[in-house]
From TrEMBL, chains A, B:
The protein's required cofactors: pyridoxal 5'-phosphate
PANTHER family: HISTIDINOL-PHOSPHATE AMINOTRANSFERASE 2, INDUCIBLE LYSINE DECARBOXYLASE
Pfam family, one: Aminotran_1_2
InterPro entries: Aminotrans_II_pyridoxalP_BS (IPR001917), Aminotransferase_I/II_large (IPR004839), HistidinolP_aminotransfase (IPR050106), PyrdxlP-dep_Trfase (IPR015424), PyrdxlP-dep_Trfase_major (IPR015421), PyrdxlP-dep_Trfase_small (IPR015422)
Domain Aminotransferase class I/classII large residue range list: 36-354
Keyword annotations from UniProtKB, A to Z: Aminotransferase, Pyridoxal phosphate, Transferase
Protein name stated in the entry: Pyridoxal phosphate-dependent aminotransferase
Protein family membership: Belongs to the class-II pyridoxal-phosphate-dependent aminotransferase family. Histidinol-phosphate aminotransferase subfamily.
Keyword Transferase set for record: yes
GO terms for MF: pyridoxal phosphate binding; transaminase activity
């Protein structure tokens, strides 16, 4: 009895996981986390109207979702002042990244990103046989000039830029990104990941014509809207590219419950404003806690704060491990020099109390 | 300003949709359907325990789902008597089909299915550049011997068999499928789609060792469990193949709410039994209505009945159109000779009352 035959590309791929989730870690440590501050989720939760809409929709989930995502696209279209054919909805930005890479990257095709930027994007590029070219962060920022130069040098199919960025929490002005478009090589798509844009200062989102064929921007309900587990993201771009997603996407792949929740969440701007304010308070508190322990918080335009532990990657890893042992789920940037830091997601006051208590012990443990 | 560059494979794909959903048709006709009997959804709905579990989970959807689907895999493992490493969970069978095709089918690779079988599988095969070889149905059944012979002839990577099948509703005994494994060529994977297996008579599911590397079987929460809009399917197969899904899947792609619902639904066997009984009653009623109108219902082991309209495809299409105009959402098999029939999903008595009233008028209209 012989098994199936895998194409070379697939046979050579690792069965890797971009991230190990907190539930896996909880089972390994045999106890639940006391504070869940590692995945940049919104512990403040979704809008109560979104929760109610999902509860109402639960009994109707015997029906497949509307494959065209009509209602949600209409709402986003009106709010953003773009046409419905500028919008694609997918199973989170992760799902959309997979589709986009499949649409553009054939085996061997070059793709440019920052070294240490979103691993799930890299996972998709590698998974479709693309060749990743990585540019270092510069002063804890994605280096736009270097990204564009590298994209020109290798004739990249896609150049990935997150703004604000993860995992450092830094950001560029929208004006800087608009200007960078002049340096974008012909035939390279700028993939602008704006997962954290709602938390950023005014002026962080560039003004880009939705019909500009050189850019796709992606946003999500996973962060400010507090619906990471519902899997709803969207992309804004030129109609030809947007329409192309219909060639490869899982048309009936959206949850009907998530569609209903996202629509209600999108309309509850008061809740969004409240979450943004709570996140700003939490960022300040995380920064204060870090400083009180002699550490250096980096400025953040996101719902997390990356804290420089002041030594090398091994030290930061030891701090991280000691936090996890105390029941505080946090993560750290994977790539040097970012790996001198740990990353703490915004939490409620009670979550941050736990972090505040655990951090000095973790530092003491790491210094030993 | 130039747009992105698409690989040849993608540039040549149609922006096609495997199915047009009922919501799209409702917007086109400017009125909601009175009876939703076209997509083999379970109008009886999910278990009340599943609804409650999803409602409870809605407020927690700020958390990403457990990427390992631990709890649901554990439950299926115990119920089916297979190991957790024999099970993969995905975003419906549709999602799993996409992953499986990507894992095995490189451009030009041969794949075998029945002409008129599940279009979404074909969509994925074409989407990854595979070459489809189609074998006709035989007496409204998938022709197992011909499928195996064609698989051997073309050295297929995958041979697709649904049992019971859609869209005809016919089925083979499990024993016949077990015997067919002897004719499965080396290096061909049998993809056994058991989406409708819960509705089928005892003995329809073959006994196949979950570790047999020649077979993957897929099941779903979309049909008997009434959760089509929640997107949960699962595959059972040998650990090497199951593990390979980790190379390509959207690890955090599951809805946390859907995970909770599926777990509760899976454990409510009383509701499952009730739905199966209600579906059997509905099948009988659809058959009676068909016969009362001079039509021939085909035997069904699914939650739908395919009704032979006794003339050609154009006539059946006219009947279908006239039903839709009266607010009855139904579909028909796309491929001759199946296209002499229309397909009606099991409904509640009130749904079937509407169908019963509409059918004679539709026939009258089609005969004019």
């Amino acid at each position: 009895m012989t098994g199936p035959r895998y194409p070379d590309l697939i046979a050579k791929l690792p069965s890797s996981v971009p991230f190990v989730g907190p539930e896996v870690q909880e089972r390994q440590r045999g106890a639940p986390f006391l504070a869940r501050l590692g995945a940049n989720e919104s512990v403040f939760g979704p809008s109560p109207f979104a929760v109610a809409a999902m509860q109402d929709a639960a009994g109707q989930c015997w029906q497949y979702a509307d494959a065209t995502n009509y209602d949600l696209i209409r709402a986003i279209s009106e709010h953003m002042g773009v046409r419905p054919d500028n919008i694609i909805i997918g199973e989170g930005i992760d799902g959309l990244l997979g589709y986009l890479v499949r649409l553009l990257v054939a085996p061997g095709d070059p793709v440019v990103t920052s070294d240490g930027a979103y691993p799930t994007f890299n996972y998709h590029v590698v998974g479709f046989g693309g060749t990743l070219h990585k540019v270092p962060f510069h002063n804890d920022h994605e280096d736009i000039d270097a990204l564009m130069a590298k994209a020109a040098e290798v004739e990249a199919k896609i150049v990935y830029l997150s703004n604000p960025d993860n995992p450092m929490g830094s950001w560029h002005s929208g004006a800087k990104i608009e200007k960078a478009l002049d340096a974008l090589p012909d035939g390279t798509l700028l993939l602008l990941d704006e997962a954290y844009i709602e938390f950023a200062p005014d002026g962080t989102a560039p003004t880009i014509d939705a019909d500009d064929p050189r850019v796709i921007r992606m946003r999500t309900f996973s962060k400010a809207f507090g619906m990471a587990g519902a899997r709803v993201g969207y992309g804004i771009g030129a109609p030809e590219l947007i329409k192309s997603f219909d060639k490869v996407r899982n048309h009936f792949g959206m949850s009907r419950i998530s569609q209903a929740g996202a629509l209600a969440a999108y309309e509850d701007t008061a809740w969004l404003d409240e979450v943004i304010a709570l996140v700003a308070e939490a960022r300040d508190r995380i920064a204060s806690i870090a400083k009180a322990n002699g550490l250096s918080p980096l400025p953040s335009a996101t719902n997390f704060v990356t804290v420089d532990c002041g030594q090398d990657g091994a030290f930061a890893k030891a701090v991280l491990t000691a936090l996890i042992e105390q029941g505080v789920f946090v993560r750290m940037p994977f790539v040097s020099p970012g790996d001198r830091a740990i990353r703490i997601s915004a939490g409620r006051p009670a979550d941050l109390d736990i972090f505040e208590t655990a951090l000095p012990k973790a530092l003491e443990s790491a210094r030993r």
